[in-house]
């Protein structure tokens, strides 16, 4: 098994970060502009990128602290069985977001690609909350030419 | 053990990428502007950030294909024993760089921080080669407020 780990520090409140991770409108500010279904535990969030994209079922919510998703469905294939968690922790001058995308069967090239791309989107989350403008798909920072 | 994995695709030649990974001048275009010591296998590269920073001994060089470093010295503490590799692979319209920073004792918050920060520097490498301007330290993209 292999995991992706990231951590960013954001000058924003845990409440604002939690909102950006748990609502369609919030998620659309930093990951992709096409999000639907975000809600309570058990809800299925559909993230779309030019029509296709992954679904996640919300597995855990601790307000302003923890958000846990489990991949749902079959796309992309290598995400099947993986889980994503966001842990929100208050620091002295910032709020930290610890991100984990765990349960990859192997550290494939695609997993490495996703690792780099998750960094891009977490910086987009930071920019969205600090500057008022993130870079969600289709305005995301490109890391290759595919 | 835990590893950091990344992958970027760059519109540049394997030769130019290899140069950026194996010379002081090349490394200074994307990681930190204060680099010395890059050379053949066995040389020790000193990367400095405001005076402090890690040393790496060059362990493997396959021209235009593979660059391997092993952490040397005691700073930062949690990097001791870790290794870094860059694998260069030619794609159809781009050259891929597969990055691994392996051998972390645990997926600590600092490891997660470094994972995000490596993505920033690999995108800096991409920008340096494609646009002629990277964002090495001290002009690097900030991922927190430390």
From TrEMBL, chains A, B:
Positions of transmembrane segments: none
Q: Where is the Activator of Hsp90 ATPase homologue 1/2-like C-terminal domain?
A: 12-129
One Pfam entry for this protein is AHSA1
Domain of life according to the entry: Bacteria
Q: Which family does it belong to?
A: Belongs to the AHA1 family.
The protein's name: Activator of HSP90 ATPase
Q: Which organism is it from?
A: Neptunomonas japonica JAMM 1380
